[in-house]
Specification:
This protein has 116 residues and is mainly α. The chain contains four helices and no strands. Helix 1 packs across helix 4 and helix 2 runs antiparallel to helix 4. The longest helix has 46 residues. The N and C termini lie far apart (61 Å).
Length: 116
């Protein structure tokens, strides 16, 4: 009898994990899509399509940057911790969700590849 209950508990746990994974993956993809839309509308003007072709050597390449770094940088521009007139103005209206969406999108793009 214990074996049957243990098997049911294992099946339930597996089903729960699979459903949670599906929800997380769906949310991550939706977040990345929203980030792409925002990036195409605003960020691409300076950072290029996908954050991969900056218009000047001083403009950073965003593609392939770490998610946490991008979130921190955008928050710092938004709050004025990092002082840049252009980025401050761009980041000021962003919400926490919008910052996460942009970071999700740019962090999943192929960045600069260097050869050794």
């Amino acid at each position: 009898m214990e074996t049957k209950q243990t098997g049911l508990a294992s099946n339930f746990a597996l089903a729960f994990v699979l459903c949670a994974s599906l929800v997380f993956t769906t949310n991550a993809l939706a977040s990345e899509d929203a980030g792409k839309k925002k990036a195409d509308e605003v960020c691409a003007a300076c950072h290029g399509p996908g954050g991969n072709k900056p218009i000047t050597p001083e403009t950073p390449r965003l593609a392939g940057q770490q998610y946490d770094y991008l979130v921190q940088a955008l928050n710092d521009y938004r709050t004025g911790v990092r002082n840049n007139a252009v980025m401050g103005a761009m980041a000021k209206p962003l919400t926490k969700k919008g910052i996460g969406e942009l970071a999700a999108y740019f962090s999943r793009q192929q960045g600069l590849i260097t050869k050794r």
